[in-house]
Amino acid sequence: MKLRQMVSSTLDGVRKTAQGVIRFAKLERVLAAFCLLIPALLIIFDDGPIRDSISAYYDMEQNQIFYFPLTVASMLFVVNGVVKEKHVYNTVLGAMLAGVILFNHDDFSIVHCFCALVFFAGNAIVIVVFSSKKERWFKILLVTVIALAMLGYFLFGWLTLFWVEWLSFGIIAFHYILESWGLID
To answer: What is the Cα gyration radius of the chain?
Structure first.
């Protein structure tokens, strides 16, 4: 009888753990989708014209609109890296996004730019390198879109860094959502 209770208790624990992981995966998707809206929130809650970059919103009057969502995004990466041990790179990317948030681009420009570069370039590398062969073409396409947007900004001045960053955030979130649904590796 005791063995049956132990097995039943163990199975119940496994079921509860599985349900917790499923709920966490759903939360990850919702938070990733929310990340897509961060630049829109910045535009809506700021008084002036659209700024040159997302980072330029750190000093807006209602700066909690800048800090809170980006901190949530940073923690999403960190927690994903901790929970899914094979995704340790997400912990590093989350720390880099935290660096972008903590070190504003005016007073700490070198540290800020380093963190931003590692965050965006790191995501591009992760998207392409950690992919299966059958999906690599799709992921290369996503990263190529980001690269073209960066060229449009750096070489031709067709758009501001704000739009490049928003596009990059969108692609990162899109990739994150597809991966959490198991639609891509």
So the answer is: 19
pLDDT tens string 85-140:
667 888 999 999 999 999 999 999 999 999 999 998 888 888 888 767 777 788 88
Question: What's the CA gap between 150 and 138, in Å, rounded?
Answer: 19
CB 75, CB 67: distance < 8 Å? no
pLDDT of residue 3: 62
Domain ranges of the chain: 12-180
104: alpha, beta or left, given left = phi > 0 and alpha = psi -120 to 50?
Answer: beta
Single-letter code of the amino acid located at 173: A
> Which of 96, 80, 67, 82 lies closest to 180 in space, CA to CA?
80
Using CA atoms, how far apart are residues 60 and 81, in angstroms rounded to an integer?
31
Residues 6+ apart with CB under 8 A from 30: none
Task: Output the DSSP codes for 110-164.
Answer: HHHHHHHHHHHHHHHHHHHHTS-TTTHHHHHHHHHHHHHHHHHHHTT--S-HHHH
